[in-house]
């Protein structure tokens, strides 16, 4: 359901991060025996009094013919709960209001990626599909890497394109499109046998339908004044340009058998949003089989230029009261446990918590109408090498 599409996007990002390979990934070994793995994961996400999402994922990865690698996954989002649809100031202060019946939805997705290594160069092509009742997406990607300096430096370039189709359960006549192109450049540098840094820039250009057909702004005039309540649908610009810069650093400390993991991401777009994400984690080896990884993530963003929890006068042509476009900040602590067995089985479990609030925005000047979000998530996976 499109009312939860941006929530689903955040969940997809969370799952992608949970499944991502370490920055210091083991390269494909030329001439090595055919190897691979198969895995199953489940991600559970529960907002306080709102959405509940369960996402099982099955994936596989294997190399063959010495220089080829294939990856594929299938997943399903199972979404239940309630979603805020109206922002109203009827009580004097703008608040989100849950209206309508509870949401029940299913999203099915699959992706595949084929990689070929030619000496110091690697070329990949990928395909992704995603279907739900009122939102379908088709995307493909191309990526190339070049190993330099005896494989201590790796340059990366990528291109992707997505073609999405937006509908609405409330309006069967709605069939809009959104097309997005993405470009990526990056570098990975081995600093020492114990340290590595990775940095990338990603530019995205989107055109098409960005409105949320389920969101409404309902504004009452001040008490004692003339006028009637106004109702406005969610209307956003017909394009969006964004730039994201991500830097990761890993430093292993042999004396303590631990690894420092730090990440910083800066995001900006032409809607006026500026966002910063900082995460610090420490992966501690307990013994040959067990390790634990506590982490803390901080997020802060400014509001979109057209965000407003009430309808201004004069009424603008572009307006959204969706609080995901407002100014706020958030903290997310988590802890991950990992168990490895000599047979090639790896079991992993993560528990995390989201706390988003207006007062957590950097500088403390978040949007006054932001309703605090509290949510738990759990992630578990089992992987078998073969």
UniProtKB/TrEMBL annotation:
Residues 1-25 form the signal peptide. Pfam families: DUF3570. It comes from the Bacteria. Keywords: Signal. This is DUF3570 domain-containing protein.
């Amino acid at each position: 359901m499109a009312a939860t599409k941006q929530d689903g996007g955040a969940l997809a990002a969370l799952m992608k991060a949970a499944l991502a390979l370490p920055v210091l990934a083991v390269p494909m070994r030329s001439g090595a025996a055919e190897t691979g793995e198969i895995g199953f994961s489940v991600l559970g996400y529960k907002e306080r009094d709102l959405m509940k999402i369960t996402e099982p994922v099955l994936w596989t990865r294997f190399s063959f013919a010495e220089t080829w690698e294939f990856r594929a996954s299938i997943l399903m989002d199972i979404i239940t709960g309630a979603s805020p649809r109206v922002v109203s100031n009827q009580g004097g202060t703008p608040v989100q209001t849950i209206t309508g019946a509870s949401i029940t939805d299913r999203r099915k997705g699959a992706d595949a990626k084929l990689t070929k290594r030619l000496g110091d160069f690697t070329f990949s092509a990928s395909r992704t599909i995603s279907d739900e009742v009122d939102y379908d997406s088709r995307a493909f990607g191309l990526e190339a890497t070049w190993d330099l300096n005896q494989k201590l430096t790796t340059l990366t370039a990528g291109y992707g394109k997505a073609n999405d189709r937006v509908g609405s359960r409330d309006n069967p006549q709605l069939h809009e499109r959104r097309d997005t192109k993405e470009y990526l450049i990056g570098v990975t540098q081995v600093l020492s046998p114990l340290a590595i840094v990775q940095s990338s820039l990603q530019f995205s250009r989107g055109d098409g339908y960005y409105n949320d057909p389920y969101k409404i702004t309902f504004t009452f005039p001040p008490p004692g004044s003339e006028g009637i309540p106004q109702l406005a649908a969610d209307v956003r610009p017909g394009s969006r340009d964004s730039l994201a810069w991500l830097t990761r650093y890993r430093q292993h400390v042999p004396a303590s058998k631990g690894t420092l993991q730090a990440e910083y991401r800066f995001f900006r777009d032409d809607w006026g949003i500026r966002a910063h994400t900082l995460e610090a984690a420490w992966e501690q080896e307990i013994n040959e089989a067990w390790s634990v990884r506590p982490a803390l993530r901080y997020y802060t963003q400014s509001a979109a230029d057209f965000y407003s929890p009430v309808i201004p006068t004069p009424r603008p042509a572009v307006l959204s009261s969706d609080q995901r476009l407002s100014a706020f900040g958030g903290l997310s602590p988590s802890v991950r446990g990992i168990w490895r067995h000599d047979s090639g089985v790896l079991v992993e479990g993560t528990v995390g918590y989201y706390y988003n609030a207006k007062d957590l925005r950097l500088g403390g000047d978040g949007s006054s109408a932001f309703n605090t979000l509290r949510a738990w998530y759990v992630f578990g996976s089992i992987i078998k090498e073969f």
